[in-house]
């Protein structure tokens, strides 16, 4: 078998031009959608209402349509996208995350509204079969119905990408042999592995042919599916296109360390079937064999240039539609972008150059003169636990180039940078085992490195000076996925008023694809904010200059336990004598004291720190009444418990609803009723659910292995254990956990701050999932933990978050803020990189030890009960303004209109309590209609 | 303690609503004064102030349950509903948090308060004072 072309890197190393400002200038988006009705006829690009047909609905097609809709303010173009796959364009780069995310929607790209735009038409499940260049039409066939349609075009863009190459080896068509390119491919692969695992009740044996970026990713994916995995590499090292010999050896060891076996210098000659006809054995040229149940082919890609060939357009020597620097083919009406385009003599198997081509074509269609700026072939392997990156002239092919190498075989680190002959200009680099310098080095490509270049390849923190702080020039590309320059990021702050990383991401798109540039983007944003004096003031409010994290540490160290002392000691020095804190800093101090285990929430002066929810331990509703939520750990509740809850709700006339956190919420309780309600609940064995606090809410669980046919672990037992462990833990924002008993993920644990998913070998733990305003999926923190390690891991994660997050910062943005992001969190939590693990463990142990039920403690204390008086001079008189109307068998607060109508009716009627007028509603307090 | 009209001084009727010791410093309490809901707040220096309990931004009677604090020199009360901040002395809304009032104007009505013999007295203009309160 031939040396395979690496799937991700196309055919040859394209040449570098750095990144020109010419196209990137056009990349900024202002997010404004022109109103179709108001568009003026095309002032920019030729005749009005031209029709653009895009063949292929992949990543680059998506970017092209998006960019066109952003920039075609005059509505000169209508677009039709003819896509062979049955789904809207998705994030192929993140394909492997399909195994952890479980569903294809997680891979969606950009805003779904794009496909509802009236000037955009996406035709799925439809393959273009021919181009008639003379007539300017394409012929397309619906894959499900075989229905054939013809589409006329004014401009045609080929964005057909590549297909996975299948090596000329016997047996590649056997069942159990897969390629790795589309969602359907990975879905089929997963189905096969799961089916085999279930049938044979033993680990499935997997092999990947090809040891490039894609092969390694696939090997990791097989492993994630619970299969054993062996990488078969034809050549003498892994990732031969990105990594040199020294790095190759370090990489092999890292891969081995993840449990993936590697066979180098091994050429596969045949795949042989077993008795069931599925693949069973691999034969190698050296006489070796390997028993397998599943094989993934990752030996390279072939550009899908068949349409162009048939239409007589020139193709490259090794395939690909030949285009010029404007991405135009020989036919001025036909363009090609993405992996199918052969530009500067080669096809490029990376998404960033494809995006750049899409922008170029859009610019040209609108009358611009953009040219392809040259490809950024920097790559970073996306495989958990294996940090590998390569960029620029990684092999020091430039004449006179110097190589600077740091190798630490014990630590598994190999880092190298390539410099120009005068040792000043950065030409490229290879980073294996520690790619932390990648984000800051990559944009410096082709530029002078300030300071001692050696400092970049030493591990971070080594040496006294540390890494030089590089001042990036404005035109340096920071995010290559989205082609965003340092200048654009800076302008987002200085000109567009972005004040945090999230806003800058939304404004510029930097960091929204692979995420590898985020540390750098963040640094730029912070520097810029500081410079512009908008100061990233982390000051809490006018009373404290400290951030929440700083205040937390200060209070922990000073040991102060009352607000007055804390304000006097840690507050601003120039405060007026009358300064007493505010609704910002008081709850923060309350939460900090709560986290530090400083007694009951209602004690002493600290009773004034909390908003009403924490103060009366219930959730304020819109009319001033409260809702009550007893804890039901893991969503488990006995029939007796349910009956008590039902009786309480009925007797107090409360509206009941099941919450998303698998428990029951009772609404409409008046302040003065809360103790009586809780007396009944506590007597029945319930305790506070902390639904009111910035604290642990619930641990949601599926039913798990005790009942479920598919469960592999007891998810409910774990959820109960976790909920009882973390109940009452005060935190910067509410926290939610979830536990699923198998990979089917019925508990939706990955939407939680901490999600636990059972595996055959233990538990996988995911962190940083958030619902709410900006939903996020949790990311994998660690795999196959036993229960003890799992609990310790969650202990540390939560405590670290509690201590260092900002006020009201949820876990996802917090992780982004931690130095090193998720990897940084992992280092602290799993490897104790800051040496604080013992401290975190002790803090959590103290929390667990000191937990008491706030409601029980309150009911036992007459002084605290006094605070539930409705009126200080009429403690049991209900708030006369409360009014309710029946709806679907329960009550709800009356609307303003209903109240007005009622008072009018009352004024008319005899004696006040009248039958309301026709059409009027009954208005009553919650308990008026029910037995007490 | 129920409301008692304690006496009139000048043109104001004074209603005793509670003992000053019943009020936790910086934790408001609601009181019924002449049929109206009043939020009564005792500051750390012993001053007692009274504003309407009706939150103009939500229409609910909840201001007594907000957080007491300060902005500059002004003692403040923050609505527990949508977090608007009011000057306790004048009732002025210092920070509408980008919202519009739904019930009356943004400025709170205030009541004069006296502390006499350990009792907290809330004053109502005589014409509005009702003996049956
Ligand atoms: C597992 C994996 C991991 C990757 N990781 C990275 C990475 O980390 N970094 C990186 O830069 N790149 C990565 N890549 C490569 C990246 O995904 C591609 O470079 C990118 O998707 C190319 O986009 P495209 O639009 O040119 O082609 P595609 O995304 O392949 O889209 C082409 C689409 O056109 C359709 N099509 C083809 N012919 C026709 C026809 N005749 N009619 C209608 N439709 C047609 C195809 O079905 C396909 O949907 C990865 C790829 C894979 C598979
Ligand atoms: S996640 Fe698995 S164990 Fe839990 S209910 Fe779903 S299928 Fe069953
Ligand atoms: S470089 Fe990939 S998101 Fe920025």
Structural class of chain B: mainly beta
- The gross shape of chain B turns out to be globular
Tell me the fraction of residues in β-strands of chain B, as a range. Answer: over 45%
Strand order of the largest sheet of chain A: 3-2-1-7-19
The overall strand count of chain A is 38
Strand content of chain A: 15-25%
Mean pLDDT of chain B: 86
CATH topology of the largest domain in chain A: FAD/NAD(P)-binding domain
Throw out a few tags for this protein.
heterodimer; A: 932 residues; alpha/beta; FAD/NAD(P)-binding domain; Enolase-like, domain 1; 5-stranded parallel beta sheet; 38 strands; 29% helix; disordered N terminus; disordered C terminus; B: 133 residues; mainly beta; Rieske Iron-sulfur Protein; 4-stranded antiparallel beta sheet; 12 strands; globular; binds flavin-adenine dinucleotide; binds iron/sulfur cluster; binds FE2/S2 (inorganic) cluster
How would you portray this structure in words?
Chain A is α/β, with parallel strands linked by helices and 932 residues long. Chain A folds into 8 domains: 207 residues, FAD/NAD(P)-binding domain, CATH 3.50.50; 118 residues, FAD/NAD(P)-binding domain (3-Layer(bba) Sandwich), CATH 3.50.50; 82 residues, Enolase-like, domain 1, CATH 3.30.390; 62 residues, BFD-like [2Fe-2S]-binding domain (Arc Repressor Mutant, subunit A, Orthogonal Bundle); 53 residues, no CATH class; 77 residues, Sulfite Reductase Hemoprotein, domain 2 (Alpha-Beta Complex), CATH 3.90.480; 157 residues, Sulfite Reductase Hemoprotein, domain 1, CATH 3.30.413.10; 37 residues, no CATH class. Chain A is 29% helix and 19% strand. Chain A contains 27 helices and 38 strands. In chain A, the strands form 11 sheets. A 5-stranded parallel beta sheet of chain A has the order 3-2-1-7-19, with helices on one face. Chain A has a 5-stranded parallel beta sheet with strand order 9-16-10-11-12. Chain A is globular and about 90 Å long. The relative contact order of chain A is 0.07. The N terminus and C terminus of chain A are likely disordered. Chain B has no helices and 12 strands. Chain B has a domain of 88 residues: Rieske Iron-sulfur Protein. The two termini of chain B are 13 Å apart. With 133 residues, chain B is mostly beta strands. In chain B, 0% of the residues lie in helices and 45% in strands. In chain B, the strands form 3 sheets. Chain B has a 4-stranded antiparallel beta sheet with strand order 1-2-12-11, with no helix packed on it. Chain B has a 4-stranded antiparallel beta sheet with strand order 3-4-5-10, with no helix packed on it. The structure holds flavin-adenine dinucleotide, iron/sulfur cluster and FE2/S2 (inorganic) cluster. The site of iron/sulfur cluster has 13 residues of chain A, from loops.
């Amino acid at each position: 078998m031939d040396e395979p072309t690496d799937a991700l890197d196309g055919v040859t190393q394209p040449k570098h031009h750095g990144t020109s400002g010419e196209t990137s200038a056009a990349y900024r988006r202002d997010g404004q959608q022109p109103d179709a009705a108001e568009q003026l006829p095309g002032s920019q690009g030729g005749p009005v209402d031209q029709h653009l047909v895009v063949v292929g609905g992949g990543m680059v097609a998506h970017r092209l349509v998006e960019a066109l809709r952003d920039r075609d303010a005059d509505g000169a173009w209508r677009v039709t996208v003819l896509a062979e796959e049955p789904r809207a364009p998705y994030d192929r780069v993140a394909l492997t995350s399909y195994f952890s995310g479980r569903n294809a929607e997680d891979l969606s790209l950009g805003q779904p509204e794009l496909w509802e735009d009236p000037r955009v038409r996406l035709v799925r499940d439809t393959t273009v079969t021919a181009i008639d260049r003379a007539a300017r039409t394409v012929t397309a066939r619906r894959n499900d119905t075989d229905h054939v349609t013809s589409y006329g075009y004014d401009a045609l863009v080929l964005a057909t990408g590549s297909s996975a190459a299948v090596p000329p080896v016997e047996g590649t068509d056997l069942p159990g042999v897969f390629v790795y390119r589309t969602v359907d491919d990975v879905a089929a692969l997963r189905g096969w592995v799961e089916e085999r695992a279930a049938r044979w009740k033993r680990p499935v044996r997997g092999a990947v042919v090809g040891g490039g970026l894609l092969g390694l990713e696939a090997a990791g994916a097989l492993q994630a599916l619970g299969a054993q995995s062996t990488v078969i590499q034809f050549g003498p090292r892994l990732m031969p296109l990105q990594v040199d010999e020294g790095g190759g050896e370090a990489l092999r060891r890292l891969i081995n360390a993840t449990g993936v076996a590697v066979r180098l210098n091994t050429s596969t000659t045949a795949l042989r079937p077993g008795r069931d006809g599925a693949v069973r054995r691999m034969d190698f040229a050296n006489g070796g064999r390997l028993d397998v149940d599943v094989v993934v082919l990752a030996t390279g890609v072939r550009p899908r240039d068949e349409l162009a060939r048939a239409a007589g357009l020139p193709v490259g020597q090794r395939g690909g539609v030949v285009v010029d620097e404007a991405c135009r083919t020989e036919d001025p009406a036909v363009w090609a972008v993405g992996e199918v385009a052969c530009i500067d003599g080669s096809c490029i198997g990376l998404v960033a150059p494809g995006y750049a081509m899409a922008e170029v074509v859009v610019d040209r269609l609108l009358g611009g003169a953009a040219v392809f700026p040259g490809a950024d072939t920097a790559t970073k392997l996306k495989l958990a636990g294996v940090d590998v990156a390569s960029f620029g002239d990684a092999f020091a092919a430039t004449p006179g180039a110097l190589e600077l190498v740091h190798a630490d075989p014990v630590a598994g680190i190999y880092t190298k940078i390539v410099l120009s002959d005068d040792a000043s200009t950065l030409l490229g680099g290879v980073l294996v085992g520690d790619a932390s310098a990648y984000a800051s080095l990559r944009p410096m490509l082709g530029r002078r490195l300030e300071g001692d270049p050696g400092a970049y390849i030493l591990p971070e923190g080594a040496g006294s000076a540390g890494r030089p702080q590089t001042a990036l020039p404005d035109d340096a590309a920071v995010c290559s996925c989205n082609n965003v320059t340092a200048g654009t990021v800076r302008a987002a702050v200085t000109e567009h008023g972005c004040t945090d990383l999230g806003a800058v991401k939304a404004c510029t798109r930097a960091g929204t694809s692979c995420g590898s540039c985020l540390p750098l983007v963040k640094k730029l944003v912070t520097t810029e904010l500081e410079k512009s004096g908008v100061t990233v003031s982390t000051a809490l409010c006018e009373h404290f200059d400290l951030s929440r994290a700083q205040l937390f540490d200060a209070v922990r160290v000073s040991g102060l336990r009352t607000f007055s002392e804390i304000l006097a000691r840690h507050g601003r020095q120039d405060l007026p004598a009358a300064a007493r804190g505010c609704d910002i800093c008081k709850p923060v101090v309350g939460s900090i004291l709560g986290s530090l285990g400083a007694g009951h929430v209602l004690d002493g002066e600290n009773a004034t720190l909390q908003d009403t929810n924490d103060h009366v331990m219930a959730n304020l509703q819109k009319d001033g009444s409260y809702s009550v939520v007893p804890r039901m750990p893991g969503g488990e509740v006995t029939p007796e418990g349910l009956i008590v809850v039902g009786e309480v709700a009925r007797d107090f006339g409360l509206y009941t609803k099941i919450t998303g956190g698998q428990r029951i919420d009772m609404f409409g309780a008046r302040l003065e009723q809360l103790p009586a309600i809780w007396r009944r609940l506590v007597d029945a064995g319930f305790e506070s659910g902390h639904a009111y606090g910035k604290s642990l809410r619930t641990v949601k669980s599926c039913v798990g292995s005790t009942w479920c046919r598919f469960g592999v672990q007891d998810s409910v037992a774990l959820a109960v254990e976790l909920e009882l462990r973390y109940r009452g833990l005060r935190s910067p924002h509410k926290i939610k956990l979830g536990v699923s008993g198998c990979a089917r993920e019925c508990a939706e644990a990955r939407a939680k701050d901490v999600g636990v998913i059972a595996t055959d070998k233990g538990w996988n733990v995911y962190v940083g999932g958030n619902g709410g305003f900006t939903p996020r999926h949790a990311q994998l923190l660690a795999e196959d933990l036993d229960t003890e390690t799992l609990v310790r891991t969650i202990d540390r994660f939560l405590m670290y978050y509690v201590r260092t997050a900002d006020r009201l910062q949820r876990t996802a943005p917090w992780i982004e803020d931690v130095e090193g992001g998720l990897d940084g969190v992992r280092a602290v939590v799993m490897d104790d990189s800051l040496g604080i693990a013992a401290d975190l463990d002790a803090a959590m142990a103290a929390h667990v030890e000191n937990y008491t039920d706030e409601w029980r403690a309150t009911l036992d204390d007459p002084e605290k009960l006094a605070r539930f008086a409705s009126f200080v001079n009429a403690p049991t008189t209900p708030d006369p303004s409360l009014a309710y109307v029946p709806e679907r068998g329960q009550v709800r607060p009356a609307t303003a209109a209903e109240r007005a109508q009622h008072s009018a009716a009352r004024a008319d009627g005899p004696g006040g309590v009248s039958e309301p007028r026709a059409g009027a509603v009954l208005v009553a307090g919650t308990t008026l209609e029910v037995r007490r | 303690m129920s409301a008692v009209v304690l006496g009139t001084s000048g043109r104001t009727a004074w209603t005793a609503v509670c003992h000053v010791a019943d009020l936790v410093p910086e934790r408001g309490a609601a009181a019924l004064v002449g049929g109206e809901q009043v939020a009564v707040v005792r500051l750390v220096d012993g001053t007692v102030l009274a504003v309407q309990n009706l939150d103009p931004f939500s229409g609910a009677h909840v201001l007594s349950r907000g957080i007491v604090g300060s902005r500059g020199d002004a003692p403040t009360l923050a609505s527990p509903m949508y977090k608007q901040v009011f000057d306790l002395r004048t009732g002025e809304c210092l920070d509408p948090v980008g919202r519009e009032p739904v019930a009356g104007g943004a400025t709170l009505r205030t009541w004069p308060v006296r502390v006499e013999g350990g009792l907290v007295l809330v004053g109502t203009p005589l014409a509005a004072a009702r003996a049956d309160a």
